[in-house]
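Hey all, quick one. A colleague (J.T.) asked me to put the farnesyl diphosphate job into the tracker so the inputs and the structure tokens live in one place instead of scattered across chat threads. No bug as far as I know, just bookkeeping. Sequence used:
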Amino acid sequence: MELFRNRINKNNIPEHVAIIMDGNGRWAAKHGKPRVMGHEHGVESVRSVVEGAGEIGVKHLTLYAFSTENWDRPKEEVEALMGLLVYAIEAETESLMKNNVRLSAIGDVEAMPEKVREKLNACIEHLNDNTGLNLILALSYSGQWDIVNAVKKLVDDTVAKKIEVEEINNKLFNKYLATANVPDPELLIRTSGESRISNFLLWQIAYSELYFTGKLWPDFRKDDLFEAIFDYQNRERRFGKTSEQLTS
Ligand code: FPP
């Protein structure tokens, strides 16, 4: 079977792809390994997908690396994930640089351990002038956190009379979200066979195409990303309109 890389339409690449990287624990169990090894192998998938996204001209790639709810996992797993983030950011910085990737983060980053914040900020700074793919890590992120956080800032600005209540609309609200400078994702991918959003980007996926695959995240590679994009390209996006309206 021909690679999906050769089957996708290079003129219809989504600008923003978001991914819920799921199934690391099940991958580890399947291979008789501790859960953390699933996460470790997941980093290889991150590398492949970041490379692939950059190669075909995706502009923004948001990865759900650690959710607000992930804090409730066993302490050892949370610590292992934080250690892995520190390690991965450090180990990948130069290859990100070579691939012209920029890095940013969304979420309650202040809640992350100092070591993670330090590495993250150093990496963001180092890659700041790059002009290729914008890799967005969602860290201590949840869609509900994002919306509540936006409401707080919006209320502050209203009380401070920087904005009038009458001015509040979807467009303005968007500016208060963590993703203010990024278009909404056209495509949201979730691995591991679960068909849930799990409190990821809630506001932003109003019209996203959802793609669920049974592949576990540590088995996911760039051609799986291209397959998802191929699937996306063969859908009709109507945004509430009728099919006839779109073709006329
Ligand atoms: C979900 O699998 C995955 C996570 C909670 C963590 C994802 C983190 C990484 C892939 C590594 C670091 C990332 C970067 C960006 C360097 P799960 O543990 O919920 O799997 P399960 O549902 O099978 O238990």
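Adding what we noticed when we looked at it: The CA atoms of residues 62 and 136 lie 5 Å apart. The domain at 10-142+183-232 is CATH 3.40.1180.10 (Undecaprenyl pyrophosphate synthetase).
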